[in-house]
UniProtKB/TrEMBL annotation:
Similarity section: Belongs to the adenylate kinase family. AK6 subfamily.
Assembly information from the UniProt record: Interacts with small ribosomal subunit protein uS11. Not a structural component of 43S pre-ribosomes, but transiently interacts with them by binding to uS11.
UniProt keyword annotations, A-Z: ATP-binding, Cytoplasm, Kinase, Nucleotide-binding, Nucleus, Ribosome biogenesis, rRNA processing, Transferase
Annotated source species: Knufia peltigerae
UniProt xrefs under InterPro entries: Adenyl_kinase_AK6, P-loop_NTPase
Any one of the GO BP annotations: rRNA processing
Annotated spans, NMPbind: 41-64
Gene that this sequence comes from: FAP7
GO molecular function terms attached to this record: AMP kinase activity; ATP binding; ATP hydrolysis activity
Record's protein name: Adenylate kinase isoenzyme 6 homolog
Localization per Swiss-Prot or TrEMBL: Cytoplasm; Nucleus
Length: 190
């Protein structure tokens, strides 16, 4: 049994995963007592441990080797077995074992114009912007998560459109962590 939950922050590129993870970690470190949450950036793992088979020029993205990537993720998560507290930052839930993750937060940006502007400002090609817009409109990440984590309350969708959503979402996640700790008899653990 972990003493802190593992949380996967998922969603279409540009919905605000990294920004939200940073805010969660910041709030957690300032909490009293502080919560020892740790950021697990899957983007960094893909690049640093070469969990890819090359670069797709068309879609301007690395072609992820999911098996290798999940081996690396499991090493990280297993290292913290009995400890937990990973805030995992990745666009997808594919490949993750359900037992590794206690809560999946899918960030959503329903305001398509806002997401379009965020993606375009990164210099993405039209095709890549469109692919990501379609994924967001059809709720692809959310559907995938709900298929795997079928226990009630394990997948939550949070709106990430305006700047104030970031803080509100981070506060909700930190509050959820506190509740999880109480429920699992970890109430006084920092
Ligand atoms: N809710 C929001 N309100 C205002 N700006 C936001 C919001 N969410 C994200 N942004 C802005 O959008 C940009 C992308 O955010 P961020 O890098 O956190 O997204 P991401 O989901 O982690 O993307 P990727 O999957 O490509 O890593 C940043 O400039 C961030 O400041």
């Amino acid at each position: 049994m972990r003493s802190l939950p593992n949380i996967l922050i998922a969603g279409t590129p540009g919905v605000g995963k990294t920004t939200t993870c940073n805010e969660i970690l910041s709030l957690a470190s300032q909490a009293s007592p502080p919560l020892n949450l740790k950021h697990l950036s899957i983007n960094d793992i893909v690049k640093e441990r070469t969990c890819h088979t090359g670069y797709d020029e068309e879609l301007q993205t690395l072609i992820v080797d999911e098996d290798k990537l999940m081996d690396e993720v499991e090493k990280e998560i297993a290292d913290g077995e009995g400890e937990g507290g990973w805030v995992i930052d990745w666009h997808s839930t594919a490949g993750f074992a359900v037992r590794w993750v206690d809560l999946v937060v899918v960030l959503r940006c329903e305001e398509t114009k806002v997401l379009f502007d965020r993606l375009s400002s990164r210099g993405y090609k039209d095709e890549k912007v469109q692919e990501n817009m379609d994924a967001e409109i059809f709720g692809v990440v959310s559907e995938e998560a709900k298929e795997a984590w079928d226990e009630e309350g394990q997948v939550v969708e949070l709106r990430s459109v305006a700047a104030e959503d970031i803080e509100e979402n981070a506060e909700r996640v930190v509050a959820w962590v506190r509740n999880w700790m109480k429920y699992h008899g970890q109430g006084s653990t920092g």
